[in-house]
Amino acid sequence: MLSRLKSRCNLMTAQACFLLQICAFAWGRSVTSRRDSGNAAGISAQVGNSRQAVQDTPKGFKPRTLFGWGRNNAGQLGLGHTADVNSPEILNTFHGKEIKLVASGGGNEVTSTGGFSLAVAANGALYAFGANDRGQLGVGDLEDRHALVPVGIRTKSPIAKVAAGADFSIAVTQDGRVYSWGANDHGQLGLGDTRDRSLPELISGSLAKHSVHQVSCGAEHVTVVTTNGHIFAWGSNGKGQLGLGSSAPKQLNPVQIQGAVTGIRFTAVESGHHHVLAASKSGEVYCWGANDFGQLGLGDLEPRNAPHALLHKFTRSKIVRVAAGARHSLAVTESGELFSWGSNDCGQLGSEIKGGNKYIGYPHRVESMKVGRIRAGAAVSAAFLESGRAFMWGCNNNGELSLNDVERRTNPHAIPTPGGVAYTQLAPGASHVLAVNRNGDLFGWGRNDRGQLGLAYTTLSEMRPQLIASISSADVEAVATGGFAYEYQAHSLAVTSSGKVFTWGWNAFGQLGLGLLAAGSATPARLFDLEKPVSLHIIECGQYNTGAVVSKKQKSGLKMWGPNFDGQLGYRFNELGPVVSPNDVESLIDTNIVELSLGYQHVLALDAEGTLYVWGGNRYGQLGTGDSRERNRPTVVRAFRGDRVVHVAAGQHCSFAVTEKGEVYAWGYNENFELGLGLGVSRNSPQLVGTLSGKNVTRIVAGGYHALAVTGLGEMYAWGNNVYGQLGLGHFDEVQVPTRVSGMPQLAQPMNPPPSDALLRGNGHEWLFPPAKSVGKIHTGVSGAGTWHSAAIGSDGRLYVWGRNSAGQLGIPQVQLGSSISTPTVVDALGDTHVVGVAVGAAHTLAIGRVGRDWAS
Questions:
Q1: Quick one: average pLDDT of 463-491?
Q2: What is the rounded CA–CA span in Å between residue 246 and residue 259?
Q3: What angle do CA 354, 357, 360 make, to 5 degrees?
Q4: Distance between CA atoms of 13 and 528, rounded to whole angstroms?
Q5: 102-111, 140-149, 385-394: the lowest-pLDDT one
Q6: What is the mean pLDDT of residues 584-595?
Q7: CB of 107 within 8 A of CB of 166?
Q8: pLDDT band at 808 (very low <50, low <70, confident <90, very high)
Q9: Which of 47, 76, 94, 586 is most buried when burial is the number of CB atoms within 10 A of its CB?
Q10: What is the C-alpha radius of gyration for the chain, rounded to an integer number of angstroms?
Q11: In sequence order, what DSSP letters do the residues of 109-154 get, joined into one string?
């Protein structure tokens, strides 16, 4: 929410102190190559205190979700792909999720493949992240993903089970159908061939006649149990792991295992890398496959290519659960006794072995453990006590035990649970672990070199539980976006209420701030330079550049990054750049910047005292310094008749300022009448926009070649280029002076109740905000501009758009691509989403909203 500080607007009525969230686009008829290859001004966002955001959250909390649509050629929508979108889609990274199922895939020292992960939400939606060199994420390409991306399985039935192998994936729907994707050189996809798949495909054949209720993946093979208790297997059979009684190297289609188990009904099957354990309904355990470390528990090291019973190796209790690691095995009896056998090179059996042996060839009871559920990773073991406490032991080279070290444990150790909320699921993999707690929050730890922890970044490993997804963790507080009008590339940033900062999109000039140059990123990545211990207050995206107002240890400052062709980074010496990570504007260190706006290659910054600083390109006089000379250091502009400036906005090559008295000043490029002065002549010093005098303007949104103004009464005025109807006036004619947009309903009103640092006076119709003594008093707000379309939020919480629809940027599928609309029109595709913020880029739109109206009732 955008709150006015006393120093910027004094006492204001509730009508005057409204919440404005509006964006605009413009285009010029007579366009030079430079203008045609440039975006309008960027979009900025003021970021509030995350603790305050939580306190202000109403009952029946619904997290603020981020939507995107329109041009996406540089991944600026953050959807994980680069295809244009003509209707609002949720950015998955910022969509709260309640997770119910997880699976960890990937190889180890044997298979040497990267880690990846699968997660199923409570609504049955499937997500994937991590390594993807064989298409194992199921997203249609071979690019790794460092954050959760949806897997598009074409089925009406929700996903009920998932399993992951070394580099392939399996999913089972609620109606028992099986889908597979990823590597297939051993026929592990069960599709009758050895061709890899990067998208899920339904397994047909003999398995289609059965309903599958449980699935398990080995390194390169699959076993499933049907609802009638039969076991089917397919894939690699080099170690006899398919249990078919033959030495055939592979099986390309699912085949039912028979022989010694004919007529036996099974309840569960678990696959290690190359061996299998199966639990029958009567409490028996059968095993087959590799046995080089005694993992079959038969007392020898001979492999078996057909099922063998293990019942006589245990106590008289029935076995109710089994688990298989890479080369070790676990089993639990109905009385809670835990048995282990096989490889113990890392202590994964839960006890030391006398005599130096690295394995136990028969079931061995793990003393002092009475457990319920069990899981096994490649070389780790996990167990849940009946009380719900979770324990792990075994290898810890990558911090798999979440104990903040790399020391292996040969005895079970309780693992930490963030917030004291117990885990309900653990999914140990080859080198990373996923966990779900009783709230449906997803955590991960261990190796993260391929993004398998889904944290939107890569590291060698994480040794403590890291939150990956939850219902509320992705609550979006602010978003900003910029753009490039020639091919409409753009970049974006978003901040969550938990203080996480994400960046994505175009990065040819280092504008993402990630320390490198690249074509772009279609998936949001974490920008740690703007996170704790730094406090972020404002983010702003321009044409190619990005800026942020931050504070640290009571000191505030401005950071800029990207190219520096015209000195727009504000550095002491002209350097072309690009600068690929946030860098201080030295002359503004300790200056309390309360507003920031970036144009094509110029910058406006306003401090708490009302002083306006400008720097960067000045070819058209957009700096307001009375000349056309560029500045590479912040320069003060004083030309407002003694009236204090409270708001600034940068267009593509023009600038605006709003004073404390509500007057509007404009300067810079004006060939399309974007200054609203009635004459198409550029100005190099601030000029009073007389038509808006007395209108009590509170905010200006500057497009490329048009502008919008909003008054304290929630009215909107528009002027400038209108070739695509971007002024919303119902026609396509150029407008020389500000004209009221009559087709737009009243704009969004202020928060009710007001923020806690506002002093409520009288009957609640006046808010008094304390002076801006520190940057930390700035609250959430979103505003900005782009190229050829406009957007605004009405007081009803609905989003209205108008202008050009060349790439679907209006978000209205019924409007034909390439056409335009000249009156504000509701984005019906957002349904009952209550929109609270909007940011518009060159040819795309981002919107923040709470899904569902009941939060506001």
A1: 86
A2: 11
A3: 90
A4: 39
A5: 102-111
A6: 94
A7: yes
A8: very high
A9: 76
A10: 31
A11: TTT----EEEEEETTS-EEEEE--TTSTT-SSS---EEEEEE----
Q: What is the dihedral of CA 149, 154, 158, 163, to 10 degrees?
A: -60
How far apart CA 514 and CA 503 sit, in angstroms, is 8
Q: Which two tokens stand for residue 825?
A: 């029109």
Query: What is the spatial distance between Cα 379 and Cα 389, in angstroms, rounded to a whole number?
Result: 21
Is the pLDDT at 88 greater than 90? The verdict is yes
Give the tens place of pLDDT for each residue, 669-699. Answer: 999 999 999 999 999 999 999 999 999 999 9
Q: pLDDT digit string (tens) for 425-441? A: 999 999 999 999 998 99
| Residue whose token pair is 């007001």 | 754
Q: Residue 19 contacts by C-beta under 8 Å, 6 or more apart in sequence?
A: 1, 2, 748, 749, 750, 751, 781
Q: What pLDDT, on the 0 to 100 scale, is given for residue 92?
A: 87
Distance CA 550, CA 240 (A): 61
The answer regarding whether domain 6-93+474-856 maps to CATH 2.130.10.30 reads yes
> Does 6-93+474-856 match 99-469 in CATH topology?
yes
Instruction: Give me 10's structure tokens.
Output: 């004094």
Instruction: Name the β-bridge partners of 287.
Output: 277, 308
Q: What sign does the dihedral 723-728-733-738 (CA atoms) show?
A: negative
Q: Are 599 and 653 in contact (CB under 8 A)?
A: yes
Joined tokens for residue 463: 């040794």
Return the higher-pLDDT residue of 830 and 38. 830
Extents of the domains making up the chain? 6-93+474-856, 99-469
Q: Phi, psi at residue 516, to the nearest 5°?
A: -155, 165
Determine the Cα–Cα distance for residues 615 and 638; give it in Å rounded to an integer: 14
Q: What angle do CA 383, 387, 388 make, to 5 degrees?
A: 50
Structure-block tokens of residue 806: 């060349």
The residues, ordered by sequence, that sit 6+ positions from 22 with a Cβ below 8 Å of its Cβ are 699, 701, 708, 710, 716, 747, 783, 790, 791, 792, 793, 838
Backbone dihedral angles phi then psi of residue 356, each to the nearest 5 degrees:
85, 5
Q: Which two tokens stand for residue 839?
A: 């940011």
What does the block give as tokens for 520? 């772009």
**DSSP result, 238-294:** TTSTT-SSS--SEEEEEEE--GGGTT--EEEEEE-SSEEEEEETTS-EEEEE--TTS
Which tens digits make up the pLDDT trace of 743-788? Answer: 777 776 433 333 332 222 222 222 222 222 222 222 223 333 568 9
Average pLDDT, the chain: 85
Task: Please name the amino acid found at residue 731.
Answer: H
User: Given strand 409-414, what is the order of strands in its sheet?
Assistant: 319-324, 328-333, 337-343, 359-376, 380-385, 390-394, 409-414
Distance CA 812, CA 827 (A): 6
Give yes or no for a contact between 826 and 815, defined as CB atoms under 8 angstroms apart. Answer: no
The pLDDT of residue 804 is above 90: yes
Contact assessment for residue 711 and residue 698, using Cβ atoms and an 8 Å cutoff: yes
Per DSSP, 92 falls in state G
- The angle at the Cα of 173, spanning 264 to 469, to the nearest 5 degrees, equals 120
pLDDT in tens, 521-571: 898 999 999 998 999 999 999 989 999 999 988 788 999 999 999 999 998
Q: How far apart are CA 737 and CA 7, in angstroms?
A: 30
Joined tokens for residue 710: 């909003």
Cα-based distances in Å from 39 to 27, 732, 786, 788, 803: 9, 20, 6, 9, 15
Please say whether the beta carbons of 700 and 12 come within 8 A. no
Specify the DSSP class assigned to residue 72: -
Q: Which fold has domain 99-469?
A: Methylamine Dehydrogenase; Chain H (2.130.10)
Cβ atoms of 514 and 523 within 8 Å: the answer is: no
The span from the CA of 180 to the CA of 191, in Å, is: 8
What is the rounded distance in angstroms from the CA atom of residue 42 to the CA atom of residue 555? Answer: 26
